[in-house]
């Protein structure tokens, strides 16, 4: 068993989009909790940064133990999250890039048989490493959606007029990347 090429491509590239969602935002928009009981963009990025370590540790455990069990990760119960969220947004983004490189190397260096090793998640059940990577990517995508939505809400409610809600990179001459 090996990880699907499409999955590995997403794993190697998906995380890079977050900087484009926030690059034109003022610090206030990144740091402010616009909804009091919801995280700010910065807190969400800190969560993503910290969760990469949690995920990497889980992968290591799956490769060394027989069907380990994992509870749902809760940043409120994680003292390391408090240190992570205290860092600057720029430092967090650099850390996400650096740790993702480590995670990519770890996945690339797995033996084909190791991809079929399993671990059990408290909510999602028993999954092999390929499924864990899919879960990670879906979870990360959901965090990106939250950031995208918060950035859009900021620009929509801002008194300044901006032509684009969020600056998105356009690859080559493709007019609609989503259509193809």
Describe this structure in words.
By secondary structure, the chain is mainly α. The chain has 7 helices and 3 strands, in the order ααααβααββα. Strands 1-2-3 form a 3-stranded mixed beta sheet. Strand 2 and strand 3 form a beta hairpin. Helix 4 packs across helix 5, helix 4 packs parallel to helix 6 and helix 4 runs antiparallel to helix 7. The radius of gyration is 18 Å and the shape is elongated. The C terminus is likely disordered.
Quick gist of this model?
This protein has seven helices and three strands; from the N terminus they run ααααβααββα.
- Strand runs, count: 3
Q: How many helical elements?
A: 7
User: How confident is the prediction overall: mean pLDDT?
Assistant: 88
Derived structural class:
mainly alpha
Percent of residues in beta strands?
5-15%
Strand count, sense and closure of the main sheet?
3 strands, mixed
> First CA to last CA: what distance?
28 Å
Which strand order does the major sheet show?
1-2-3
What characteristic shape results from the CA principal axes?
A: elongated
What's the Cα radius of gyration? 18 Å
Helix content: 55-70%
User: Which regions have little confidence, pLDDT < 50, spanning 5+ residues?
Assistant: 160-180
The string of secondary-structure elements, in order, is HHHHEHHEEH
Which helices and strands occur, and which strands form pairs?
Blueprint: H1 5-13, H2 18-22, H3 27-31, H4 41-64, E1 69-70, H5 79-85, H6 89-108, E2 118-121, E3 125-128, H7 129-157
Helix pairs in contact: 4-5, 4-6, 4-7
Considering the chains and any ligands shown, give keywords for the structure:
mainly alpha, elongated, 7 helices, 3 strands, 180 residues
């Amino acid at each position: 068993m090996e990880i699907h090429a499409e999955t590995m491509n997403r794993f190697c590239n998906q995380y890079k989009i977050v900087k484009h969602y926030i690059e034109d935002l003022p610090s206030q928009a990144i740091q402010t909790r616009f909804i009091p009981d919801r995280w700010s963009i910065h807190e969400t990025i800190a969560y993503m940064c910290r969760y990469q370590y949690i995920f990497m540790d889980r992968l290591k455990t799956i490769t060394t133990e027989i069907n380990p069990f994992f509870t749902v990760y809760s940043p409120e119960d994680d003292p390391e999250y408090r240190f992570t969220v205290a860092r600057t947004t720029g430092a967090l983004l650099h850390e996400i890039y650096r740790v993702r490189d480590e995670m990519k190397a770890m996945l690339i260096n797995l033996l084909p048989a190791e991809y079929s090793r399993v671990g059990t998640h408290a909510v999602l059940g028993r999954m092999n490493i390929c499924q864990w990577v899919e879960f990670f990517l879906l979870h990360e995508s959901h965090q990106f959606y939250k950031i995208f939505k918060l950035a859009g809400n900021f620009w929509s409610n801002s008194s300044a007029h901006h032509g684009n809600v969020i600056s998105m990179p356009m690859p080559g001459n493709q007019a609609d990347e989503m259509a193809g």
